[in-house]
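@channel sequence for tomorrow's demo:
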Amino acid sequence: MIKVFTAVSVFFAAAAASARWVWWRSTIPGLPVLVYHKIGTPPPGSKLKDLWVSSEKFRAQVAWLLSQGYTTVLFSDLLKAHKNEKELPEKAVLITFDDGYENNYTQAYKILRELGAKGNIFIVFNTIGKANTWHNPDTEPWVNMASMEMLKEMQESGVIELGSHTMNHPNLEKIPLEDAAWELTESKKQLEAALGKEMCAFAYPYGAGAYTPAVRELALKAGYMLDFSFKQGKTPWPWNRAAGPIDRLFIKRGDNNLDLMLHLTRGVSRLF
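structure tokens (generated this afternoon):
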């Protein structure tokens, strides 16, 4: 009796674990846009470990994408496709990084270059060469951000393109609209002046404001042609810009290649 009970328990535990991954869902169409943050090992005391993907895992994920016939594209490729100036590859995927950490240069850029892949980074202008000061250092240790020299090298390489992530990384829904407008317009202006290239892409910090009409209108008025949310999912392509921003697929520290495949095909990998 005990053996039967144990076998049944193991069966249901295995079934529950299997159902956790959404392999049983139908595939959905749309453009897959992956979002990473930090590449490397979390510092001691980090409470946001999900934002860290090890360099080994990142390399394996990019290698898997390429082995499956995906083509990594840049913001400029996406913009040309949106304007009907060129077609995206059949299995296009956009790799993005939020914030602009130093490890995006020391780890991610090196891996992308070695594998022949491309990526895109959203930059918080006032923290370039400093630290991620929007975090409370008592609960989440600060880490170094990429310097302007690093950003210029990555941009000039053709491996990485850059976009805006505001001046200071505020929650755009929690500040006055006039302050939000400044964060959006000034970051575009400063990045373009420093890097000598138009900033066509913007990502909303925390995803806040991406689906708030008053905030999104400010982003469009600032001149961004591509705007990205933090909402989990895939956006139909061709993209209807008036309908809303481009959604993304958040890649977490614990995600494996099965998770990656499910993100790309189902728009989400796990139920919990």
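heads up for whoever presents: Residues 3-17 have pLDDT under 50 and may be disordered.
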